[in-house]
Amino acid sequence: MKLSIVATLYRSAKFVEEFHRRASQAAQQLVGDDYEIVLVNDGSPDSSLELAVQLSEADHHVVVVDLSRNFGHHKAMMTGLRHARGERVFLLDSDLEEDPAWLLSFSEQMEREKADVVYGVQQQRKGKHFERWTGQVFYKLFRFLSGLDMPDNIVVARLMSRRYVDALIQHDERELFMAGLWVITGFDQRAQTIDKRSRDETTYTLGKKVAQLVNSITAFSSAPLVGIFGVGCAIFLLSAAYTSFLVVNWLLLASPPSGYTSLMASIWLLGGLIIAFVGVVGIYLAKIYSEVKQRPYTIVRHVYRQAETRSIE
């Protein structure tokens, strides 16, 4: 099979039919009839699954992977890549903010530059001022702490060679951050500037964005732990210096230390730092706990395929 188009479904009922039409049109222009469209239902609460199954019954190119519950966008994407069989794999979101027709320009660049991956980047991040500002902070903070050269304003849409996808799915992590895995997998990756549409509604709440930031940094960087050690050493040195000053002052000047306010402020400061540091260590321990249990990061309830319909327990 020459091409696989992979997309996830979550609250996608209003987009799935139009996405199928446009993705099919782009695939047929590129490879004729030799393609598949893999739709991963990530526990969507609307009628996305029913609509996708109807498409699979009417179009033998459509494969629907139904997850047993909502596992999250990144885990659903990795599951879709594991089910893709094409020599090239085009991954994108199904909400039509990313245009399926990008497949043609991505493929042209991949052929011209002999690259393994062509991915989209926005010239300017979509959204309001706060969303753009937080996005810039995220990329700068991630690069600073992880040392990975992740491009600014990267989007999901990317065309990948078979050997790159095979290398990517070798990562067997339980706490996935796809943008980081895309970078560390390596190979020859090229960017293409795109114009991403913007919708008012989004399934990524502020809480999910903060959780993603914490997950991405702790998955690819030990800098917070090193920082804790550095701050602890600095506090120890300052405390030792101040204690020496008090002892010398008491011995030579017979002036006992005083100051209830400064004492309490120091206690609250150190107490807060200790609690914060224990929390950071706890996050890393929680990630280790999640990884060592070796639980599957997704569970597939059913795979709908016109040629063969099978259940996976």
TrEMBL record:
Keyword tags: Cell inner membrane, Cell membrane, Glycosyltransferase, Membrane, Transferase, Transmembrane, Transmembrane helix
Source organism phylogeny: Bacteria, Pseudomonadati, Pseudomonadota, Gammaproteobacteria, Pseudomonadales
E.C. no: 2.4.-.-
GO molecular function per UniProt: glycosyltransferase activity
Subcellular location: Membrane
Organism: Pseudomonas monachiensis
UniProt cross-references to Pfam families, sorted A to Z: Glycos_transf_2
Protein name: Glycosyltransferase family 2 protein
Record domain Glycosyltransferase 2-like: where: 4-167
Keyword Membrane tagged: yes
Mode of membrane association: Multi-pass membrane protein
Signal peptide: none
Transmembrane segment boundaries: 225-253, 265-286
CDD domains membership: DPM1_like_bac
Gene3D superfamilies: Spore Coat Polysaccharide Biosynthesis Protein SpsA, Chain A (3.90.550.10)
Catalytic EC class: transferase
Keyword Cell inner membrane: yes
